[in-house]
Amino acid sequence: MEIDQYLGVFIEESKEHLQSLNQHLLELEKQPEDIGLVNEIFRSAHTLKGMSATMGYQDLANLTHQMENVLDAIRNHQLTINPDILDIVFEAVDNLEEMVLDIESGGAGTKEVTELVRQLEAIESGEALHQSNAAAEHKTPEEESSLLLDEFELAVLRESEEKGFQNFYTKVTLREDCMLKAARVYMVFEVLESLGEVVKSNPDVSQLEDEAFDLTFEVLLVTKEPKELIEEKILKVSEIDAVSIQNFFIDTYKHVQDAANEETAAAVMEEKTEAMTTEKKAQQSNKTIRVNIERLDILMNLFEELVIDRGRLEQIAEEVKHPELHETVERMARISGDLQSIVLTMRMVSIDQVFNRFPRMVRQLAKDLGKKIDLQIEGAETELDRTVIDEIGDPLVHLIRNSLDHGIETPEVRRGLGKPETGTIKLKAYHSGNHVFIDISDDGAGINRKKITDKAINNGLITKEQAAIMNDNQIFGLIMESGFSTAETISDISGRGVGLDVVRNTIESLGGTITISSEEGKGSMFSIELPLTLSIISVLLVEIQKEKYAVPLSSIIETAIIPKSDIMHVHNQAVIDFRGRVVPLVSLKDVFQVPNVYEETDYYSVVIIKKGDKSAGLIVDGFIGQQEIVLKSLGNYLTEIFAISGATILGDGQVALIIDSNALIK
Amino acid sequence: MAEEIVQDVKVIVFQLKNEEYAVPVTQVGSIEKMEHITRVPNTEDFIKGVINMRGVVTPIVDLRSRLGLEETPVDENTRIIIVDLEETSIGLIVDAANDVVDIPVNKIEEAPQVIGAIDIDYIDGVVNLEDRLVILLDLRKVLKFHEIEAIKSIES
Fold first, then answer.
1. A547 touches chain B (CB under 8 A)
2. Across the interface, which of A308, A593, A653 has its CB nearest the CB of B41?
3. How do residues A219-257 score in pLDDT, each as one tens digit?
4. Which CATH number among 3.30.565.10, 3.20.20.70, 3.40.50.620, 3.40.50.280 corresponds to the domain A350-531?
5. Is-contact B37 B74, C-beta < 8 A?
6. Which of the residues bear the PTM Phosphohistidine (chain A) (predicted)?
7. Has this prediction a pTM greater than 0.90?
8. A305 → chain B, closest CA residue
């Protein structure tokens, strides 16, 4: 078998199973009596075992096998769950994760796991009853064969019975999400034929090859091998959900057949159709396909080209003034607008992808720190552009670690303060307008304003005078300044300050903002605001002399045209009184050293922009209009250009620069 | 005496003022006619701006100004040579792109060390082709890649 082509699928599915293992184990920890959860865990472990054995990863298979035994004992009530068992199972899952990651990065997936296997074995034999018993128990002997045999087949079976062979009725159920049903069937048949002879299958072989069956198929096998061996070997084929094997006796078959009236047959039929409809329902609720991310990126790039050409067409139509052309271009613009929203939503991924690793992390950290933490997650289904998702993980990890380490107090301290011993960290994501908000809040100690102020003054970030007039939010913001932290505060979990400035930089580089609010003794909250998508944005195109620049709409409050006489000067800084506020003016012509071509007029066009609660007015020479543009980077040759965040290609094929308005507000 | 195997490098020869310069063909993506350049403010003088090169925003360097020659107005011979360096495309403005020649490696001589006063670390060598003298450029140094990298490494 060509293993390589299945490797990608194997890794992907293994990760999914590991994720579900983690998730269910965490739930199980909270509700140890829920056998349904144990079954879920068992199923994941079981599939993982089968897959890794097929792919030839022996260590992986061994470990999962032993883990599966323990789980099996639990679900058969031979073992009761206790924290020790769970810890070891968690450790086993960790090891499995490492192995899968190793395989993904091209390794052999081997790892020294004998100690863990031994521990698992100890757990299993320590309290477990006989494994064989358990195995016998979960058989379902009442399963009825629905095979119809003709005379010839009956003769073969009778003969084999007489010659000392055993006849087994084998029912194999494939997993619901099995992708290569025919291939799996083929593999099962190969296994069976190595053990004995297949007399009959239902549906028949050609139907099986055409995948003309649901998920289960039945086989009559003539063999000398024991039942257990057959079962084990079949389970080694991946994507098999269950196998049941029963002895098949011709006498009973005949008896049943004879006694069978239409009623039973109808009942069987009914059962089958019922099974089929539920199957179909399950499929309908999950009509998705996997698409390689690269393809989506290519699609996005192509679409960006289209947006540029659309702009060009619009411009041509404008110049030509041909009504039919105009109409067509307008229609095209509408359609491509719809297409754009679809392409964009296709790239949206739910933030659950990032959130789902946190429960594990929090559990471990809480254990290490001797704290009791309840992590609450809200809005995990909130969707964000994949590029944002890729980047947001690390900052969130850091903020959560920070809350755990510095926010939540130890149980003793909390008890002393009259708080519940278990601290709460809340992770909340939600949409609002064109932005996504992520809040990380805790009910811990909060931030001590005085401590922060003192330290900031000591480190020379601010002066005493400045500190006196700063509001709480501004003070709290200081902990995210680089240079705030000093080496002595670094701990294993998070060195406060080291990294918090990195967190802020990452978020700002994504076009987002982060703010901190806190109440001492009650807790703190970090709020992150992120744009929904990064690649296509709305801008206002402006003219400065003969050059065109784009100002992101998200930072514009409004535009105005003001007479020169309205400009006042404060400390050599030009300002205007705008709706009762004093707004400083920035001449983009001076900032960007634009060569002078036009005569100055008596009126200024001003774009009022904001950054947090501060604002400024940008003086330009004219407004061109609002436009959707595709964000392009200036590449790595031109870096760190003051007040320029990127470039875009306009309808006429020329490049316009995008103004980073944040840099223009002090 | 064993026969010596002489390797050739293919170079693109272009004109700046009265002299001919060359860069290896392997580093050249395309040669374009002059088009509208969007000025990028607050950059070094020799960076003229950016152009749209088939959907990619590409920085443009005026090679005359970079090599300390006086700039000349654009005429119909002016070309932009797009070079690819470490996944970055950069356009070089030259007076004219002349031709493609094979240069035997053993004919490349070291740059003469007489000019002294001017920093000439970007010259890779000189080739005497019959009656032509061609100067080979080290593009990484011409484009100050090492300086950019140095800045990056300090930052990180």
1. yes
2. A593
3. 888 888 777 788 888 887 777 888 888 777 776 666 555
4. 3.30.565.10
5. no
6. 46
7. no
8. B55
